[in-house]
Design a protein that fits this description.
Blueprint (H helix, E strand, L loop, with lengths): L6 H25 L9 E4 L1 H12 L28 E4 L14 H39 L1
Antiparallel strand pairs: 1-2
Helix pairs in contact: 1-2, 1-3
C-alpha cells in the first residue's frame, strides 16, 4: 500500500499508466501492420481521467454537500470508482486488399505524440516530488 503524497500525484500516476498502456497498444498496431484483416486499436482514457480529476479535486471546493437523512431522499452524487479505458477500433483509414487498415504514418505520429505526453508527465511528477523535497530540506535547516 502506498501513501499518496497529494491528489495531483495520484492523477499523474494514473495518467502515466494510461500513456504506457497506449504506447503498448500503438506498438501492437505497428507490429501487426502486415497481418491480414487486422484493424488498428486505440485506447481512449481522457474522459476517465477527467472524471477522476473532478472527483479528486471536488473536496477542495467550498460547496455544501447534501446530507441524506432518509433513504427516500434524492441520493447525493456518487463518485465514480471505476476508471477504465475505452478500447476502440480506429476507423476512417482505407483497408488494403488483405483487409488490414493499419496506416504506419498515423501509428508513428500517434506514438510520437504519446511519447511527448509521457515525457511531460514524467517531468510533472519530478516537479511534484521536488516541491516536497524542498519542504523537507527547508524544515531540516530550521531545526
Amino acid at each position: 500500500m502506498s501513501i499518496p503524497v497529494s491528489r495531483t500525484s495520484i492523477l499523474l500516476k494514473d495518467a502515466l499508466n494510461y500513456r504506457a498502456a497506449r504506447q503498448d497498444m500503438i506498438a501492437s498496431n505497428i507490429a501487426n501492420a502486415d497481418t491480414p484483416n487486422y484493424k488498428p486499436r486505440d485506447i481512449s482514457f481522457e474522459q476517465a481521467l477527467i472524471a477522476k480529476k473532478a472527483s479528486l479535486l471536488k473536496s477542495d471546493t467550498n460547496t455544501l454537500k447534501m446530507a441524506q437523512t432518509n433513504e427516500k431522499h434524492i441520493a447525493p452524487e456518487k463518485e465514480v470508482e471505476n476508471f477504465k479505458p475505452t478500447l476502440f477500433y480506429r476507423d476512417g483509414h482505407m483497408a488494403r486488399n488483405d483487409g488490414n487498415s493499419v496506416d504506419i504514418d498515423v501509428e508513428t505520429t500517434e506514438m510520437s505524440k504519446n511519447s511527448i505526453m509521457y515525457n511531460a508527465l514524467v517531468s510533472a511528477i519530478k516537479k511534484d516530488s521536488y516541491i516536497f523535497k524542498s519542504v523537507i530540506e527547508a524544515s531540516q535547516k530550521v531545526s
